[in-house]
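Quick entry, no commentary yet.
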Amino acid sequence: MLNLHPEIKTAFQNSFPVDIADPNKDNVTASFRMMPTVAAITLLSKYQNNVKNAENQIVTFAHNKIGEVVVRFDKTGVLVGQSSNYVMPGQEVTITAGIGAYSSSSQPVISIGGANVPVVDGKATYKTTASGGGIRKVPVTIKYRNQDGKDTTAVSEVEYTVGTPGGAAVMLDKMNVFYIGVDNPVTIGSPTGWDKTTVSMTGGTITGSNDKRTVRVSSPGKASITVNADKKAATFDFRVKRIPDPIFKVGPGGTRMPSVTFKNQQFCRADLENFDFDLRYNVTSATVYFSGAGFNNVATASISGNSLAPLAQYMARCQPGTSITFDNVKVSGPDGARTIQGVGIILY
């Protein structure tokens, strides 16, 4: 304790109440060896009183020195505060900035959010209206003259979060149903902001962040999304369906076609009609029957893709009155393979 300050050591080194009897021995041996218990307890009490007395003398000495000391602030710091670190759009955010150890001679110039703000009693107050959503950062720059007369610049940053207004909600970007095998885009709203919101799902998987999410489902039935906003949960139920069957087509489609048009076709296809998702299905196989004009007996052929090249020799024999039937048509798409309805075409 005497080493706290040279003046304290000078004043108390010959009269300090706490002392060790023999500095060459440890205090236990020097003070308590062969001492009865009652005497040892009495001596411990004396030590306690000496310590308290020493504390009082040092504190009194230091207190009396306060009026004699010339205080010089050799450290300064940026003091920045804000009215709230979480607000909703439209609410006001107040930022207060200043410097520690303020003196009117320091002449501070304070810039908040890139604009100079008037300084009153060493501090500047900046007000702004929250907008948008997410984390916002406001830079604070303070220029002042230190006690040595040198111009100094201190930089800080205020960060706050703007929440998302409105009640918890889930909105499908396509239709009010989830389809198997495709990405179902979903928009989710939260009343408290995404730092206080969690989203979970049953009957499928949901990925993404904040309000934009993607749902994947694998089997027909029902699925649900739960939005837990600030410990208040809301559950939304949805239907899960298969993608409708595509329609098998050759050329312009339909069941009647000019023979010349049919004979000029090189490919078949499977179209999804009146569906909100932009999806493609490929024909993987089909059995084809030719009969009627140009065929004394039913001719059977097959294809293994969208190309009609394997049917070339039969298509060359087609004429008005020929009947062509595409049966057992198999296609593959984003949700896997399936068998769809074929088509019978009459040529004229």
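second:
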Amino acid sequence: MDSEQLDEQYDAVVVGGGAAGLAGAIALARMRRSVLVVDSGQPRNAPADGIHNLLGREGVPPRELVAAGRAELAGYGGSVVEGRVTSLRRSSGDGEPLRFVVVLDDGRTTTARRLLLAHSGTDVLPPVPGLRELWGSRVLHCPFCHGWEVRGRSVAVLSTGPVTAHAATLWRSVASRVVVLSHTGPEVEASQRQELEAAGVEFVTGEVASLEPVGDDDGGVRVRLASGRTLEVGAVVAASQVRVDTSLTAALGVDVTDVEVMGVVAATGVVVADPTGATSIPGVWAAGNAAAPMAVVPAVTAAGMQAGAAMTMDLAREDLAAAAAARTELHDDEMAGAAR
């Protein structure tokens, strides 16, 4: 836990220091706004070896990207403290400038003029023994994130929902062999199955009992079925459900929603935000997996920067209004003095 003394007030406090949170913080700091980022140091993409499709930083390890972002923020005067925000509440009354009290898990508190919710989600994985241990390395979910790394190898798609045919279709672009494991998923429509089988996709019935690593770091996965049958593949594809923590959004009254994909809930507790990241509560923005749980790093980075820019403009408007109010008050005092 970081023991750094917090300032009494910041222009913005960012909850979560991943790509979105740091990008938003840097946008604010470059406009000479005081910014505090509170980060637990547990990025959702930590199991991955590298981040892909990130222009100029292809394959950078997730923690290395975070470290670089923190250093950039520090160069502009922004601050990062390790910890977890446990409470957020509005402290200003109606008609007053917006202010929010921020409480950390070690008891430290500060006040923010604006908030950026950039906390991550949690992947709820299929309950298959061995799957969690291989998640992000040999058990994958996104062909755009991991497909190139398993190009020319065999891939097994673990069926747990209605996206099986969709996944098999995409992974055919990079894999030498695609096997659909029926497991607990619904039966693939006959027409889709015929198309996939015509393209060489294999279907294996029966539930999966366990997944085991094979070989060294570049090895594959041994799939063991409940029937006792085993097969080895280069990687397994599985879908997760993303759960976004709603404890902070509920306290603020921020609107959240569940996101469905093909009729199945793929994410819960997702913050409802407009294209700038503004939420249903004035003064509160959201970016990253908190608002877009399926978005990849380049997309959430852009969203964080957009939110930071919008917050900067909102702060500037508040400053102008305060200056105008102060000038009016001074003028009224001068007029009252002259009348006496």
